[in-house]
Design a protein that fits this description.
256 residues; alpha+beta; four-stranded mixed beta sheet; extended
């Protein structure tokens, strides 16, 4: 669960499926202990009622089938919540700046099971909606149209699977979700540069400085596993051979 983001959100009440949510599919089993659950009031000091926000895409990286989704909703119900907000996993399953919440092959060693979850659930958004409303909770949807992928650029003539390509300088943008892929004018763009900066960009480059971060760090790859880099001392650093490639329009580069 995450706090409601400050970014632009569009809230839609998903009540059209309430008739489906009231039906318990025998193949999915019955919830035997719901009659014992108590509806606990959850007001803040100012009298406002709290509600959880479930960011579906990050949840999917830890494998989620029907049971895992159902268990999450039962847990929220036991806490006394009557409403739940869902940050939707938008169609297109774009790549994010954090690879652990992008759809990727599970053999990469990142602990990412998003693909397996999608294959198991079919439509994750509907399954979360179904399980919340089946328990009598209101289900609200949060759509974040500008959290739509990192927009990687691939060279002219290259191709990639399962991603619509948007022409750009130097190649094609890929890995946007369906909303941005079909409406590229909505994608995040660089602000216009000031004239003073544009003039400086036209000045010849006299020198280049390359810097690398070699400090130790620890990165969590799954629930109980970490990747650790111990860092490098100055004595262990070898100056690499650097080759410079150049192109004014960021297109096909030529070796200098």
């Amino acid at each position: 669960m995450m706090k409601i983001p400050k970014a632009l959100t569009i809230l839609l009440i998903l009540v059209n499926f309430s008739a489906f949510a009231q039906t318990i599919d025998a193949s999915m089993g019955k919830v035997g202990d719901l009659s014992l659950l108590k509806e606990l009031p959850m007001p803040t000091k100012s009298g406002k009622i709290m509600a959880p926000v479930v960011d579906i895409m990050p949840h999917l990286r830890g494998f989620h089938g029907y049971k895992e989704v159902r268990d999450e909703m039962i847990f929220l119900k036991k806490l006394g919540f009557k409403r739940v907000y869902f940050i939707l996993s938008q169609p297109g399953y774009s790549a994010f700046s954090d690879p652990t919440i992008s759809v990727m092959s599970p053999d990469k060693g990142t602990g990412n099971h998003t693909l397996e979850s999608i294959l198991a659930l079919g439509d994750p958004n509907y399954v979360y909606l179904y399980e919340a409303q089946r328990l009598g909770m209101e289900a609200w949807a949060i759509i974040k149209p500008y959290e739509s992928g990192t927009g990687f650029t691939i060279p002219h003539g290259a191709s990639t699977a399962l991603s619509k390509q948007i022409p750009t300088i130097g190649g094609q943008h890929i890995n946007f979700d369906n909303l941005i892929a079909n409406n590229p004018e909505l994608r995040i763009k660089r602000k216009p540069e000031q004239d003073s900066i544009l003039l400086r960009l036209k000045e010849p480059i006299q020198s280049l400085e390359v810097a690398f971060s070699l400090d130790a760090f620890r990165d969590k790859t799954s629930a109980k596993k970490y990747f650790e880099f111990k860092g490098l001392s100055d004595a262990a650093i070898q100056i690499p051979e650097i080759t410079l490639w150049h192109r004014e329009d960021n297109g096909k580069y030529t070796k200098e």
